[in-house]
């Protein structure tokens, strides 16, 4: 069963009296436990596609099915509930809560969205801290962490609610070369361990090289799809 299916997907924004088409009739399929990249120049529609897949926005036309759910049928509350139970997010600027520790940042979705009991939360958070090798940094706040450590916490936070897929918008943009490679390898390991699909919006050649499936966008259209075998079998 495919995780995401887009058929004739379009999104148009209205700016004043002008309609601005961001996505124009896109067709694509994303399979479970895959590493997928949307690539293209700025303004090509990459982030818009992630917003649509993540139920942060609704299609203007066409159909988008995520986990057997037609996204257009979800109202605001239902979309928020769907996101909280199925989708994790990783951002280029990390988006950690500055006053919370690494542990608390990872725990946050379980309190705010899923309302897990305390003992279950602790078990899950500690499991993810160990998975991203941040157990020793559990009590540090973001201003006490390196960029790579912040992104490791962000990866753990995205996975803590057992997300079926993680949407990563330029996740390596603020990282140096070596740290970026380590984060990509970490996400691939998380995919292999948890079966999570990672979907990237990126300009980064390192991410493109690691993606098994790459969709190239230009002016809101999907121009091509390429597939390569996993770089690390």
Structural class: alpha/beta
| CATH-derived architecture | 3-Layer(aba) Sandwich
In percent, how helical is the residue content? 25-40%
Number of helices: 7
Could you tell me the number of beta strands? Answer: 10
Strand residue percentage: 25-35%
CATH class: Alpha Beta
Q: Low-confidence runs (pLDDT<50, min 5 residues)?
A: none
Q: What's the gyration radius in Å?
A: 17 Å
Shape: globular
Question: How would a crystallographer describe the biggest sheet?
Answer: 6 strands, mixed
Distance between the termini: 22 Å
- Tell me the domain tally: 1
Overview of this structure, please?
The chain is an alpha/beta fold and 233 residues long. The protein has one domain (32-47, 73-223): P-loop containing nucleotide triphosphate hydrolases (Rossmann fold, 3-Layer(aba) Sandwich). Helices cover 36% and strands 29% of the residues. The protein contains seven helices and ten strands. It has a six-stranded mixed β-sheet with strand order 6-7-8-3-9-10, sandwiched between helices. Helix 6 (177-194) links the parallel strand 7 and strand 8. The chain is globular. The model has no long low-confidence stretch (mean pLDDT 91).
